[in-house]
Amino acid sequence: MHLLSEQPRQTFCQWLISVKLSRIVIMVLAILILTPLITHFYLSKVERNSSLINHSAHSHLELPDELDVREIDLRVGVEELVRIRGSVLSELRNIEKKRRQFKQELQNYAKNIEELKLELVHQQTNLNRLKISVEQAQVAMHEALQQNTPDLALPPRLLPDSVPPILPAISRDRSRNCRMFTCFDHSRCSLTSGFPVYLYDPDQNPVMNDGWDVDGFLKTTLKQVLGYNPHLTHDPVEACIYLVLVGEALKDTDDISENVGNHLNLPPLNSEALKRLPYWGGDGRNHVLLNLARRDLSANSGDIFSNVDTGRAILVQSTFYYEYFRDGFDLIVSPVLGPPGGDVWQECAYMLPSRRKYLLSFQGEIKANKSNAAEKQLSTHDAALEKENIELNNFILQHLKELGNTHTSDKFLFDFECIPASDDTRNTGPQDWALCGTDSSRRTVLKDSTFALIFAPSSTDFLSTTLLQARVYEALRSGAVPVILGGDQVKLAYDEVVQWKRVVIFLPKARVTELHFLLRTIPDEDIQLFRRQGRLIWERYLASVQSTLDTIVAVLRNRLNIPALPADTVAAISVFNDTFQPILVPVTGDVEQEESLGPLEPPYDSLSFRRNFSLGLTQGPEIWNDWGDPFRLYPALPMDPLLPSDAKFVGSERGFRPIANGAGGSGKEFSDALGGNSPREQFTILLLTYEREQVLLDSIARLRGLPYLHSVVVIWNSPRLPSPELKWPDIGAPVHIVKAARNSLNNRFLPLENLNTEAILSVDDDAHLRHDEILFGFRVWREHRDRIVGFPGRFHAWDLNTKNGWLYNSNYSCELSMVLTGAAFLHRHYLHLYWKWLPQAVRDKVDEYMNCEDIAMNFLVSHITKKPPVKVTSRWTFRCSGCPQSLSEDDTHFQERHKCINFFTQVFGYTPLLNTQYRADSILFKTRIPHDKQKCFKFI
Question: CA–CA distance from 45 to each of 74, 84, 626 (Å)?
């Protein structure tokens, strides 16, 4: 019996346990509702019965007395029922109150359950990240152990602790045989020193003899422009090299008239004054003597070292004799003919059309300079060879005159005598060609010339002359391709690092009869290539005093294989103070992830310190832009105009902070999927905003759960700081809100110090891109790292109506030439080039219109790479429907962009934008396939 009764009880308990909470709640609610209804029904029935009894009592007063007792009992029963009814009603009210309390508690429990579910998802995501991080760390450790290649860190900076000690002076014969390994003190220039450079104040350390002085413009400008060079130091103890300005040395005419016959035979440079320099060290080691020509372009300006004991000092000038030039030690430079610094694009001629009025031009006349030094050098030559050289020069002149008279299809301009005749002996050298006319008149002729003929000095004793370098300078400035007749005899400025054959045509004098044939065989595209590269060389290394000084320093640094200093970055100043903590709220809603897009990892910076010292060895020392391989070498920054000093270009930071190829946090499966050699990589989102707080917050919230996202950097362009009450979404990645110094669209490309990945995704604050679109664009960029890779494509077209300029077009087309940076990937180094290499006039125009910064970036990238951008497929979801009206919908917006394209064309000298019909799509994009067969995305 006990067992039989126990079994139903257990069954009932099991059933009770299995019943869901929702069913129990329904049963309780049913009981609470039915109980008062049933009670109310019976009480109503009792009241009807009592009223009938009372009515019967009044209508039948004649009943017997024994009914009085019943009546009393009935009344007592009714009163008892009424009391019970009141008690039941009170109980029902209490039950209703408790029911409401239970309902509120159930709602609170349901809300807590939803919050716990969100927290569970968040914690599960963090757990997955930790698991992946552990796995990646294990893989990285395993690979490091296999390769036995430890990660390098920034080495300590080693600097000398004393000025150069006094050593015995060396003889003149030994000094003429100086080389870097015999006359340079490498102990003061360690690999990690940063190459500190000290400048003697030209006013406080005069080294000129009486009657001579250094050009005042050079003295003032040199101190000013060298102050912008990051290698300059004011501490002579730590200096690697010491710069001494000794020219341009000019005669003081007043002093000449008063001291005739006294000291006029003395050279301009005072040997004893050199030895009295505070840090000369007895022999002048690590000193660089700068003899920069500006007004005096004669060869005599380069002859000031002939009778001077310069010890172990390096000589820098434009004129050198073969006998005295120490290859790999002395340095040939161009004369300083330009402004102190700043934009120089206005000095340049337009690059189009390829062929100009004159195929070849030359203006000049030759005057033999009877200097003692020249006569001494000429007297040592074999008479037969000298006679042969004279006959050859005469034949060349006769052939060129006939060339200009016989060919009618091509125009030549040859003036072998200046009209009016030039009596300015300063503009002549020993057997060298003087310049005719003024700088303005020569520029007019060169702008109409496709090629500019330049003669090597008639005297073969000269390796280089100031006039030769000046002619090359003027030709490159005007876009005329230099043709040096006798080019196998001379050297041009910085020839140890510049491959001038990509800029200048060198032709031996004996092949002068082939000159016309050679020039006619050069096609238009090669003429443009010569012209573009020549302009690059001129702008970066010859055009101004600053570019000349920076290049000299960079060449010397390159000789020592010392990496350049890091590129300047902009401080990322937060809009919040140090004590303020922004309000972070979890992002509700599902993550946009319909398929596995990749692992979620913590921020992983691009790897550093991998190619600090091997870059110059593997890339070569050239400074031209190799358009065939545009990112092996590229235009360097003004602060260091010689070498790209990045880990790679597709490079990153310069010098001690280079980024190896493939920095970031993607994981091994990402690398395998792309077939690349970058083990890890992430990207940074750079977002520009202006007083659209809610739009910004919504855009950030949509990034929650985005794979490979390193961080989000928001540039706050408004002077009004964000409200401290704003609730910033917590997306699982760092979000930095950076305050801009002023409202400018140029801030979109600020090279901020907290951009720690090579890949930068530039987006507008109202752009709406799906996660799979962003990831696909990122993967395409990894295969086109030198280009802009993005979603909204635009193109430029020639105005066929006015035929007077270019037009900006946003219509859908089968081709494009620009990808707007409102939704595009680009390399971080382009941000440095935008601020350090791009002419200031371009950024000023962007500020003037508050427009066109994306066009400027497309111009810059296409100019450097000679490649069009890459467009990837998207869902055309760049703008949010709830945002205010965009500026791009205003007709003024398009008119300004028309003007921008034409103005940028003037600055660059041509339109570098290139059209393309290429678009990157994924074969498996949105294709439902089994997970075990999802290997990678393919591109077409």
Answer: 14, 14, 107
Residue 308 has a pLDDT of: 85
Strand order in the sheet with 314-317: 197-199, 241-247, 287-291, 314-317, 331-332
CA distance linking residue 59 with residue 81, whole number of Å: 24
d(CA 303, CA 314): 15
User: pLDDT for 73-119, tens place per residue?
Assistant: 777 778 888 888 888 888 888 888 888 898 898 888 888 888 888 88
**Integer angstrom CA distances of residue 481 from 239, 498, 519:** 40, 16, 10
Residue 763, judged by CB atoms within 10 A of its CB (0-12, 13-18, 19+), counts as buried
Give per-residue burial for 165-192: e unless 16+ CB within 10 Å, then b: eeeebbeeeebeebeeeebbbeebbbee
Q: What share of the chain is helix, strand, coil (3-state, %, to 5)?
A: 40, 15, 45
DSSP letter string, 439-493: HHHHHHHHHTEEEEEEEPPSSTTEEE-HHHHHHHHHHHHHTPEEEEETTTS---T
Strands 462-464 and 320-321: antiparallel
pLDDT in tens, 764-800: 998 888 888 898 899 889 889 899 999 989 999 998 8
Residue 265: both structure tokens together: 């035979």
For 836-839, the CB contacts below 8 A with 24+ separation are: 836/567, 836/568, 836/637, 836/638, 836/639, 837/635, 837/636, 837/637, 837/638, 839/343, 839/345, 839/907
Tell me how far the alpha carbon of residue 177 is from its chain's centroid: 43
pLDDT at residue 629, rounded to an integer: 29
- Tell me the two tokens of residue 779: 């993967």
> CB of 286 within 8 A of CB of 273?
no
* Distance, C-alpha 4 to centroid of its chain: 86
DSSP 373-424: HHHHHHHTS-HHHHHHHHHHHHHHHHHHHHHHHH-SSS-EEEESS-SSPP--
Q: How confident is the model at residue 646 (pLDDT cuts 50, 70, 90)?
A: very low
pLDDT higher for 683 or 374?
A: 683
Residue 18 identity:
S
Q: Which residue has the tokens 């910076």?
A: 605
Angle at the Cα of 922 (from 700 to 627), degrees rounded to 5? 90
Calpha distance 621→563 (Å, rounded): 12
Calpha distance 196→835 (Å, rounded): 24
Total residue count of the chain as it appears in this document: 940
**Catalytic residue annotation:** 854
User: What is the pLDDT at residue 237?
Assistant: 95
Separation between Cα atoms, residue 578 and residue 574, nearest integer Å = 9
Q: Residue 793's beta-bridge partner residues? A: 819
- Asked whether the beta carbons of 846 and 742 are under 8 A apart, the reply is no
Report in angstroms the alpha-carbon separations of 571 from 709, 734, 755: 22, 17, 11
* CA separation, residue 882 to residues 692, 726, 887 (Å): 12, 19, 15
For residue 882, report the phi and psi dihedrals to the nearest 5 degrees.
Answer: -90, 5
Are 783 and 674 within 8 A, CB to CB?
yes
Read off the pLDDT of residues 215-247 as tens digits, 9 standing for 90 and up.
Answer: 788 888 998 999 889 999 999 999 999 999 987
Give pTM, 2 decimals: 0.77
Instruction: Between 882 and 19, name the one with better pLDDT.
Output: 19
Answer yes or no: are the C-beta atoms of 280 and 274 closer than 8 Å: yes
Using the predicted structure, report yes or no on whether residue 845 has a pLDDT greater than 80: yes
Provide the 10 A C-beta neighbour count for residue 42. 12
Question: Cβ of 43: how many Cβ atoms within 10 Å?
Answer: 17
The pLDDT tens digits of the residues spanning 522-575 come to 999 999 999 999 999 999 899 999 999 999 999 999 899 888 887 788 999 998
